[in-house]
Write a structure and sequence with these properties.
It contains no helices and 7 strands. It is an all-beta fold and 70 residues long. The strands form 2 sheets. Strands 1-7-2-5 form a 4-stranded antiparallel beta sheet, with no helix packed on it. A hairpin with a 4-residue loop joins β3 and β4. The chain is globular.
């Protein structure tokens, strides 16, 4: 478990295949799936992804604070 703060303009530099439970504490996070789908998450929203299921990466224009369980 960890709390992560992404600064404005953050873009992950790789596609992640690891499973996570992610909860947005503050800010706005865009999760992109390798197949082209995008989901915008706001405070109080979460997503879950299993290991090796859907490669994903995160980005934020204005910054975000996340609670992540790997």
């Amino acid at each position: 478990m960890r709390i992560v703060e992404y600064s404005p303009g953050y873009l992950a530099d790789h596609w992640c295949s690891r499973g996570h439970v992610l909860y947005v504490l503050a800010g706005e996070l865009v999760t992109e799936l390798q197949d082209g789908r995008r989901f915008t998450l706001l405070p109080g929203q979460s997503y879950q992804v299993a290991d090796d299921e859907e490669p994903h990466r995160s980005r934020t224009a204005h910054g975000a604070t996340l609670f992540i369980v790997d």
